[in-house]
Design the sequence.
């Protein structure tokens, strides 16, 4: 899921480098960007097939996840916190459970400098609420949160991981 972002591409490179995975299905809201084609060519050079699929709603998510045993879900990095991230996380948890996915891991960067919420609750509370719902909806789900701090010094991008 959302494999076009920089964190996802790095993880995919590492997972496919070991030879266990020779085919990756990338579901994304915009899988036909130049950087995705470049990534597809990069992986093809290592013998890995990247099958990119566009998702735009719950039905396209379910149809494109059919047959998956393992799913890595990545929220987009370098964008502000929005409700679509929480909704997509919850939809992925439910669809994974329905389709019998064996392992679902969500990698969710926390982007402090770009975070906001339109509700009375803080964005952290809204995010934690969505994550708890996803975890309760799918017992085979794990969530890895990363705390990203952006700025002019690239050595401080990954601040800590929990």
Sequence:
């Amino acid at each position: 899921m959302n494999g076009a972002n920089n964190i996802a591409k790095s993880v995919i490179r590492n997972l496919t480098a070991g030879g266990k995975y020779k085919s990756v299905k990338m579901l994304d809201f915009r899988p036909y960007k130049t950087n995705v084609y470049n990534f597809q060519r990069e992986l093809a050079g290592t013998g890995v097939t990247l099958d990119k699929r566009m998702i735009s709603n719950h039905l396209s998510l379910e149809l494109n996840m059919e047959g998956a045993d393992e799913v890595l879900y990545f929220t987009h990095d370098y964008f502000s916190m929005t409700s679509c991230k929480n909704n997509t996380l919850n939809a992925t948890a439910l669809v994974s459970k329905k389709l019998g996915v064996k392992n679902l891991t969500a990698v969710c960067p926390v982007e402090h400098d770009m975070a906001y919420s339109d509700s009375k609750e803080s964005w952290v509370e809204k995010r934690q609420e969505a994550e708890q719902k996803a975890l309760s909806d799918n017992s085979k789900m794990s969530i890895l949160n990363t705390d990203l701090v952006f700025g002019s010094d690239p050595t401080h991008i990954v601040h800590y991981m929990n």
The chain has five helices and six strands. Helices lie at 6-17, 34-44, 58-65, 83-99, 123-137. Residues 6-161 form a domain with the Rossmann fold fold (CATH 3.40.50.720).
